[in-house]
Design a protein that fits this description.
By secondary structure, the chain is of the alpha/beta class. It has one domain: P-loop containing nucleotide triphosphate hydrolases (Rossmann fold), CATH 3.40.50.300. 38% of the residues lie in helices and 16% in strands. The protein contains 9 helices and 7 strands. It has a 7-stranded parallel β-sheet with strand order 3-2-4-1-5-6-7, with helices on both faces. Helix 2 runs parallel beside helix 5 and helix 3 runs parallel beside helix 4.
Length: 263
């Protein structure tokens, strides 16, 4: 457990190139007489460096005309299933690429590729989130100007992914009925910071104790007016509304991010 209040312990795990002094401070520098490691400065430096690279990632996407989505969820909520449906339903209208983040294996990227998308797998080697460094490397594997929509499937986790900006344009949370209706109350940081919410597996509502009113009340307290899509990847209920929102968001992004002719 990391002693920094309000910060997940995995904040210490930024992968990629780091200033060696950051690591030195994290491991060795201590407050005199307190025995406590001076970690706040380290976290601020790591997050600041990540945010700078995230901005660069977004600039790369904007230059290529790509709309980027960051999908976050707990394990098993249905991120990959929803992505498969998106590929199958939208690939005749736009070019899609998928970057899958996971601790190990290429299972999710293989599924995205089998559905018809260009897919890149990031194995984090134990990290519980993607960060801007990892995404930067994955973007190098794609011919970005060939795509309209980039879907980033983050590592399954309801805490750490929200702390690390990637450079995508929208943060999407996929919740699911079997997780329970208390998740907004238990993981407020995740629900507070997203741009859209999918409630998956609504076909299980008759069989699982899930109070939709209680769940939505928690979401509204944290993120008033958050656009929400109840759906089922199994039955297809609600998928059309979700796909329409994606297409509208892509069109709106394209209008607002047209290349400027100004120097």
């Amino acid at each position: 457990m990391d002693p920094i209040q309000g910060k997940p312990s995995c904040l210490m795990g930024l992968r990629g190139k780091r200033d060696g002094s950051w690591l030195f401070v994290h491991q060795n520098q201590r407050n005199k007489g307190s025995g406590m490691a001076k970690r706040i400065q380290v976290v601020e430096k790591i997050l600041s460096a990540n945010d700078r690279l995230a901005k660069e990632n977004q600039q790369r996407l904007d230059k290529a005309g790509v709309f980027g989505l960051n999908f976050m969820a707990s394990p098993g909520a249905g991120k990959t299933s929803l992505i498969e449906h998106m590929i199958q339903r939208l690939s005749d209208q736009m070019e899609l690429a998928v970057i899958d983040g996971d601790v190990a294996t290429s299972i999710d990227a293989d599924r995205a590729a089998a559905a018809g998308a260009t897919a890149v797998q990031i194995n984090t080697g134990g990290e519980c989130h993607l960060d801007a460094v990892m995404l930067h490397g994955a973007l190098d594997e794609l011919d970005l100007e060939s795509f309209d929509l980039l879907i980033v499937e983050n590592v399954g986790n309801l805490i750490c992914p929200m702390s690390f900006q990637l450079g995508t344009h929208r943060n999407i949370l996929i919740a699911s009925v079997p997780e329970g209706d208390d998740k907004p109350y238990k993981y407020p940081g995740m629900y507070r910071g997203v741009d859209a919410l999918v409630i998956n597996k609504i076909d299980l509502l008759p069989y699982v104790p899930f109070d939709m009113g209680y769940f939505r009340k928690g979401v509204e307290i944290l993120n008033p007016g958050l656009i929400t899509f109840p759906l089922s990847c199994r039955t297809g209920e609600g998928l059309e509304e979700w796909m329409n929102w994606i297409k509208d968001a892509l069109r709106e992004h394209s209008r607002t991010k047209e290349p400027s002719t100004e120097e």
